[in-house]
Design goal:
By secondary structure, the chain is α/β, with parallel strands linked by helices. Helix content is about 30%, strand content about 20%. It has eleven helices and 22 strands. It has a five-stranded parallel sheet with strand order 4-3-5-6-7, with helices on both faces. It has a five-stranded mixed sheet with strand order 20-19-18-21-22, with helices on one face. Helix 7 crosses helix 8. The longest helix has 22 residues. The two termini are about 40 Å apart. The C terminus is likely disordered.
Length: about 450
Amino acid sequence: MRISNSEYYDESVETASRQAIERLQFEKLKTLLEKVYISNPFYRRKFEQYGVTPSDIQSLCDLSKLPFTTKREFEEDQEKNPIFGTNLSEPFENFVRYFQTTGTTGKPLKWLETKESWQWRGRCAAMALWAAGVRPSDTVFFPFGFGPHAAFWGLFEGVYHVGALAIPAGGWDTLQRIKSIIENKATVVCCTPTYAIRLAEVAKENEIDLKSSSVRITIHAGEPGALIPSIRKKIEEAWGAEAFDYPGLTEIGAYGIHCKHQKQAVHVNESEFIIEVINPETGKPVTDGEVGEMVLTNLGRSCSPSIRFRTGDLVKLKEGSCPCGRNFRILDGGVLGRIDDMVIIRGINIFPSRVGEVVESHLVVGEEYQMIATSEMGGGFKVIVELLDGRNKEEVSKAIRDDLRQRFEIRMDVEIVPLGTLPRSEYKSKRFLDMREGLINRKKV
């Protein structure tokens, strides 16, 4: 039973020993596999194809006997079996929620939830909210357009589980949202890192001091930010609040817990997820401390599970315990990048997300940037930057250029453009354009 003055939403689980955690994971995994093998056509076919049954899984060590699952497999299944594919373990009438992915790299993937799986999502979110310091006495503000993307819906449900007051603000413009935050004395704001900075920018334009508001916590999902020092610093300085990350995926759920003791790392909620980190080329496990692709199995959503799901996210497991008392494993830096985001420029592997971190460290609230990969001269990489009036353009552009050259051992062009040239977003910013060989491939970093 959760105690309101405890540091933990579910203390018995969050402070369990490694042995107890692994025992719980295996029990949940066996229950999941037994149900899925009987009633889920998608996974029944996969398991039969690979010649594996639930009885073959006698310990967590046997997890590797199960095949990996990719997003493309889910997409192909829905293409061949419209509307929702065959990764459904229950009758259609049991499903009560519909979501879809953003479809950045293809047709959006549809996802359904039952009452039970939606409650599970809410509990996962509540565990993360509680670790960030959210309590029943808080007022949680959501400046988010509540469309078909899962994004902050899970957090919204999590606030209900915590017992706090939730304010949805999907239909308002940015200034209306800021005024409501002030008027209703919101203490927690949930949005993307991009939009937190945009809110601060609009507040400054309207001579509103967010630092004097009641907001003490900001929680960020949808894109990296709260674990990146330069972005977190901007958010915390603008809001006078503590920023937390809330990592998750539509296909998997919210797997992360960002506690107060980890500024640049998150726990994996191992009571509800099994994590593996593999070499993306060989599929074999990497050693702790080595960067690899994160593979996740969710244990509480049997109605439409993701078993050994290859996320495409690059992560690194951090050794050692955490002062918070949780024994869940830790991702150092959270998501470090994506396998499909890598571009090769003049023989050098470049992750735009890493470039963005360097550029961010030289910018202040109100300034924006965009990155473009081109085919010029064997491959080029340009950074376009907006600077506020009064900033020394030559000095800042040189500092960015020199920092990028030192970090990536390659020259990158830096172009300064007038304020208002680059688009602003209320959700995710489109900061990377791949225009090599005339192919425009928009990605979000």
